Amino acid sequence: MNVDKLIDDVIRREGGYSNHPADRGGPTNWGITEQVARAYGFLADMKTLPRSAAVNIYKTRYWTGPKFDQVAALCPAIGDELFDTGINMGVAAAGRFLQRALNVLNRGAVDYPDVPVDGNVGPVTLAALKGFIAKRGAAGGEVLRKVLDGLQCGRYVEIAEENPSQESFVYGWIANRVGQP
Asked: How many angstroms separate the CA atoms of 45 and 48, rounded?
């Protein structure tokens, strides 16, 4: 799947402008929070955020910036998964999920060395992913994706347990995020 299709799918799921009182992201348009839009120079009312600006943010902040494009070049399903998780939970959380999963799937560092769980997908994490794919092949990519989905789902439960106001979002997060795109 290419990044433009991924972005179209996210925008379709996210919809247009929203400002739910319990949403910690505050005013959001096209799935882009006000804080993120401001970081990318958009200073107007969030209701007027152009779709093209949202697309640019998705590409730079959530695809090329965290190197999820490089992950996708090795294993498209994993790159796609990290992209979507990064949008909803932050790219560092998505990176940590990948690193944690790779560390527990390497059979005690027999298949490839453990990687630091720092959320930054760099050469060490990419090398571990290459090692995983070399050992497990395409079927391994599906297992890795299941682990990522499990970590994501578990985090949603933790968020709601830590802050019950977030319970109103859990069903939608799981229905629309886990197992996507």
From this structure: 6
Residue 135 tokens, joined: 């050992």
pLDDT tens digit sequence for 13-51? 888 898 987 777 789 999 999 999 999 999 999 999 999
Are the C-beta atoms of 8 and 33 separated by less than 8 Å? Answer: no
Phi first, then psi, for residue 23 (nearest 5°) are: -75, 115
> Around Cβ 173, how many Cβ atoms within 10 Å?
19
DSSP 106: S
1-64 is a CATH 1.10.287.3510 domain: no
Residue with tokens 């799947």: 1
Other residues' Cβ atoms within 10 Å of the Cβ of residue 39: 11
Whether 75 and 65 have beta carbons less than 8 Å apart is answered as: no
Q: Which has the closest alpha carbon to 171: 181, 146, 159?
A: 159
Q: Can you give the residue ranges of every domain in the chain?
A: 1-64, 75-181
Q: State the Cα–Cα distance between residues 57 and 105, nearest whole angstrom.
A: 32
Contacts of 29 (CB under 8 A, 6+ apart): 16, 17, 18, 37, 46, 47, 49, 54
pLDDT digits (tens, 9 = 90+) for 101-153: 999 999 999 999 999 999 999 999 999 999 999 999 989 999 999 999 999 98
Per-residue model confidence (pLDDT) at position 1: 62
